[in-house]
């Protein structure tokens, strides 16, 4: 069955965009849990490590930006309403 | 008896906190090059240096009751017990279970100390000097034991526990058989608690402990083969459960030169190759080298398994060695031993 309805197509695009950001967020979270725990452990002994530790903790966060970029491209690259404008 | 049963999923993360913490704690240990400098200090200077390190609290607290070598001995043991208790307090589920399982060795140490103290008629305050309440048995319980009148009273206090059978080996004349039985009991209990499970962390603990048993047996072999003791008696003193158990037990009672030659090719040989010669007069130097090898082994294994029990074990062993080194220096100084002799006994990994 071919999807011809532009509205349905746009809806699917929105779902894809949501998944891209959402899954990237979950992945970053999984990556951060270990780093976060380890950083808290080190900072408990060595408070001066906090700055470096925070930086390391935020590294997986950068992955979300890729997800977000993909979402934005999906949402704005094509729109069924473009022809109406 | 608790047995480890935990799901396999999501385990390494449980270790992230404790391994991060012990790695930070490791940086606070006394660096190896300090030992050479401590050898050239006198005892009050060493105490002053220790005040600048993690021992500050204990030195300050105990300074009003003791001084000189006594102060350092008390402070180091107090700090050791405190550090180990802290490791137990800051860890959860599997890591905590495994750390406690490993620290039970201090229960054995304390029971042995009390038995020895009672055997030679030491007072309870004197016995308590050498107690390290880092295992399951706490200070109050051990103090109660130290206050008992005789060895048999101490043994009776363990009625109905795991220790009872090992302690029943006491024949009233020698402690050696009881001490051996206690050592074997420690490893047997660890195997029983951790061995039957599929847990990865438990497997790594056992892997390290098996190597530790080998090294202990090897030291026994060095001592007894050097003294030319009969094979059957040597074998009785070996701890079962090591990885090289059978090979080492075959070496029991061999002539010393053959025994040393037979060790070539084992992983620990490179650590002792330059000191293990046939005409060696004492084994203390080999003992120190083998212990240093064990510490390096724990840390190098923990590079392969960064989120596991191994960094914690590495820290526990390194800390114990540090305390032993400080005590060796202080006692050696007090007895007026030459620096070379003290240095020979020290374990520097």
Automatic annotation (TrEMBL), chain A:
The keyword Secreted does not apply. It is found in: Membrane. GO terms for molecular function: proton transmembrane transporter activity. Residues 15-74 form the V-ATPase proteolipid subunit C-like domain. InterPro entries: ATPase_proteolipid_c-like_dom, F/V-ATP_Csub_sf. Gene3D superfamilies: lithium bound rotor ring of v- atpase. CDD domains: ATP-synt_Vo_Ao_c_TtATPase_like. Pfam families: ATP-synt_C. Signal peptide: none annotated. GO terms for cellular component: proton-transporting two-sector ATPase complex, proton-transporting domain. Keywords: Membrane, Transmembrane, Transmembrane helix. Its main location: membrane. The chain crosses the membrane at residues 54-78. It is a multi-pass membrane protein. This is H+-transporting two-sector ATPase, C subunit. The lineage of its organism: Archaea, Methanobacteriati, Methanobacteriota, Stenosarchaea group, Methanomicrobia.
